Amino acid sequence: EVQLVESGGGLVQAGGSLRLSCAASGFTFDDTAIGWFRQAPGKEREGVSCIRNSDGSIYIANSVKGRVTIASDNAKNTVYLQMNSLKPEDTAVYYCAADPRRRCGKWDFEYDYWGQGTQVTVSF
């Protein structure tokens, strides 16, 4: 059974940092792209970042570039999203998703498996 479990969300003041984790199981982690998306109330789901575990290729959305890094620990089947200099507009539910075709696309329909999400709230 494929499982993606996000953790690390919470309430943080503007300018603060959070590290989100995505623990994966049930598929070949090394041969998969893992993406992070976010969805704020009333808005469409937005791609934030992606890492292709097979070769380490990384994609980071312009909206968070310079504030976000993504890393993968293949030994732990876990992907991390480090978010710094957080802004109130970063408030959203953050999801990780897996693409077995390793495309690392920026659209949510390109991903087959999804976690349940973790809430990130950034206060002024």
Compile the SSE list and pairings.
Elements (H helix, E strand, L loop, with lengths): L2 E5 L2 E4 L4 E8 L7 E7 L6 E7 L4 E4 L7 E6 L4 E6 L8 E8 L13 E2 L3 E6 L1
Parallel strand pairs: 2-11
Antiparallel strand pairs: 1-3, 3-8, 4-5, 4-9, 5-6, 7-8, 9-10, 9-11
Order of helices and strands: EEEEEEEEEEE
Number of helices: 0
Helix/sheet category: mainly beta
Large-scale geometry: globular
Largest sheet: 7 strands, mixed
Please bin the fraction of helical residues: under 10%
Instruction: List segments where confidence is low: pLDDT < 50 over at least 5 consecutive residues.
Output: none
Approximate strand percentage: over 45%
Rg estimate, integer Å = 13 Å
- Total count of strands: 11
End-to-end distance: 40 Å
The overall average pLDDT, rounded, is: 96
Features of this protein?
7-stranded mixed sheet; mainly beta; single chain; 0% helix; 124 residues; 11 strands; globular
Give a short synopsis of this structure.
With 124 residues, this protein is mainly beta.
Describe the protein.
This protein has strands spanning 3-7, 10-13, 18-25, 33-39, 46-52, 57-60, 68-73, 78-83, 92-99, 113-114, 118-123. It has 124 residues and is mainly beta. The strands form two sheets. Strands 2, 4, 5, 6, 9, 10 and 11 form a seven-stranded mixed β-sheet that branches. Strands 1-3-8-7 form a four-stranded antiparallel β-sheet, with no helix packed on it. A hairpin with a 4-residue loop joins strand 7 (68-73) and strand 8 (78-83). The N and C termini lie far apart (40 Å). The relative contact order is 0.32. The model has no long low-confidence stretch (mean pLDDT 96).
